[in-house]
Design brief:
It comes from Polaribacter haliotis. The chain is mainly beta and about 775 residues long. The chain has a domain at about 530-760: Pectate Lyase C-like (3 Solenoid), CATH 2.160.20. It contains three helices and 70 strands. A hairpin with a 2-residue loop joins strand 11 and strand 12.
Length: about 775
Amino acid sequence: MKNSFLIISIFLLLISCNEKTTNAVFVENKSELKEAIKNAKPGDDIVLKDGIWKDVEIKFVGKGTKESPIILRAETAGKVFIEGVSNLSFGGEYLTVKDLHFRNGYSPTKEVIAFRTDSKNLASNCRVTNCVIVDFNKLQRDNDDFWVQFYGRHNQLDHCYLAGKTNGGPTVRVDLKGIQSIKNYHKIVNNHFGPRPRKGGARGETIQLGSSFTSMSPSNTTIANNFFEECNGEVEIISSKTNFNEIKNNVFYKSEGSVVTRHGNYTMIDGNYFIGDGENENYGGIRIVNTGHWIVNNYFYKIIGENFRSPLAVMNGIPKSPLNRYNQVTDVVVAYNTYVDCKSPFQFGVGTNIAQSAVLPKSEIRSARPIRTTVANNVIYNSKGDETPIVEHDKADGVLFKSNIIGNNGLYLKDDIRLKPASFTLDTISENIMLPNLSSVDVEPYNGFDFDLIKTDLVGNSRENNNAIGATVKADITNPNILDKSKYGATWFKVDAIVEGKTIKVSPSDNLSEKIKSANKGDIISLNEGKYVVSKSLIIDKNLTIQSSSENKAEIVFEGAENTPAFALNPYGVLTLKNVKLSGNGKNQAFASLKENMSNHFGLSVSGSEISNFNYVLKAYKQTFAETVTFKNTSISNCENGIELSEETNDRGDYNTEFLTIDNCTFNNVKQNVIDYYRGGYDESTIGGNLLVTNSTFTNCGAKEQNKMLLNHRGIVNVNINNNTFKNNKIQFVSILWGAKNNVESNNTLINSGKIKTEENLVMKLMY
């Protein structure tokens, strides 16, 4: 009996010795945190007291072990707020940070979270989990940074929520400079990348893997099981610029851009969902550059973008391309993908620019067509027949097509070799997932070289014994609930629900400035009839509507100082002005952004209004951006300058607004800069700037315009000028259109107002 008791006691002792022990160290301020990190040992749990930690630069240095990492966490998940001028950096091994919320601030360095403390002290086997970064932006748009920058090896970002980056630089970036950071096997998994607003130019990726000059290095980074929601920063959502990366099982939901193999080779893009709405042409799919990529088992729904944003864009390359340009596509496989109601899903020779050879150096001409590329076992379904499911911007003579079918709703295609017509139905799995039922289609999957390595389909079913073309081997699958946001990101974080605004009645006797200040986001300021005399700028720092309460327009008279605006559009300030008379003293401004520290976007929509006697109608300063600027059914008269959006003169592809719309407006006696909207720099990846001028009348304008042009929109890619009248404007040109881009005009009447000219190729400064 004694021996049995002794044996049991020894057994329990051994178990207890092998159990992981945790030493919790609670800290309440920066000095205690620094001391706790300095003394941390494997298994320690450093706990930050709940509350706001402001202006704190956390250097988390230590050496944990795989079994006993050193953990830095919030006392309560989501209750520790990192604010002000703050950041976090790692140095060491097996360190974990969890449950923190970065908000109301920006980093003093180039990174909010860096997996190194300096160039000599990198992180390995470190992790950031269950954290949130929202709107943690530099004060100036051109002050680029990265919210998370990877260095070292075997580091991980998981179950985090990141949203609202407006300044330049990718949200997440992997750095490969130095042998310590190649073959890194980093993991970016199970995160929710929330809305990233349009940046208005390049350098707005959500994830960037490496750079042009490390593009020949192996990275072996995995991006998997993430949810990308409205990631609209620029044309590239994920920019893969290194070798041997895997982009797998992610959901790209209504995101204006594409997954792009920008540089580097041998990327596996497998089992992803690309969900559009059949209306927005900016939602993209996959764009291919370089060598050896495999694009398999992906599902595309209502992606109708073209060229750079087409569901599958296979680019032309530059012969003998330098590292930072476009290499030829070679040895790529596109197999077992499904396209449902996608416009022209296969596009080849995208980006060919041979026609622009007169204004570009030979080193920029993309004439190298894809070669040794296989497109096989793909399924296309169109509820409305598509006449051009394959678009050749240049010949696709280096592409092998095998066992691809199209259900085209009875529309006959002459090309039945590359796409075999078939009749089949769809099985509805969920609102956005409709899979072809191919039980009646007899097409043998093409068995190309190494195709046997594609062992599973989109949802994980085996392909080995019951293979079929398309993204899934069968249509009757279980709903994967890809839009269930609880599956991604920080467990404790919930996006604020949209609150319906209330209407606030205001009379001329009220203090309009105070009413605006006390209003909440989304409120409507309803102005009673009468005159509102304003001597200082009205601050717009949230989404507000200001409108007259009756058909009789309320009148706002701005008596403010020279070069100050009636409405100062601050970060987050989105103003809708309806049915209002707005007048100045000839030396001030109607609307203007801040001159500096515009850490977030503004927006402006004016309708049914009368604007007169200002120096500027709208003045957008450098490093400011509005997603939309709209004037409708509005008269603008007797102003020195009109709509000024031209201060982004760095020629790096930046511009001040994504969409400028002038509809059914009258401009009378606006002396210069009537519409001045500029984007500079030759950059084929910047495909924005959108100007629509329609149904409007311009009379006696442009008298002081130095370049003798009424509508200045140099470098803007999408321009449509239609159904306007231009009368007695003392200028040489109404507009000079860029013929090689999407610049068009129609049904305009010109009376004593110069002419509209088209130049096929504009000379632009190279950005590279």
